[in-house]
Specification:
This protein is α/β, with parallel strands linked by helices. It has a domain of about 100 residues: Ribosomal Protein L13p, Chain: A. It has five helices and six strands; from the N terminus they run βαβαββαααββ. Helix 1 packs across helix 4. It starts with 14 loop residues before the first strand and ends in a 10-residue tail after the last strand.
Length: about 150
Amino acid sequence: MKTVLAKPGEVERAWWLVDAEGQVLGRLATRIAKILMGKHKPIYTPHVDTGDFVVVVNAEKVVLTGKKWEQKKYYRHSGYPGGLKIRTARQIRETHPERLIQLAVRRMLPKNKLGRRMLKRLKVYAGPAHPHEAQKPRVLKMEETPWLK
């Protein structure tokens, strides 16, 4: 039996619509990362980008468990002495709620050129409206997807 490897030209990409309202951030991010990598497809090949597009709406209504809104901290550094910036999850949600999901998913993808290409297919919107109706995204219900767990 031969192993079949996917070729970049053979990959068919689908569009998925995910509603983040009431979803726990980490569990949502793992499922989105699997779709972006293409692990839900039988033609998955680790070194080929076989993933789909994911549109996330209602990012401002994502949930964190426990006291993580105040205790979870996000760090960035400017590269200069004293340039460390620390923000809590609540502060990020108030200014840019879509960044919480983008950061969580980005940290679950490969840390190379392939991972950066995968992240470009993630579209996150704070509210329920999105400009991707023309692509006819299929609604992805998290509780009905055992193949993503």
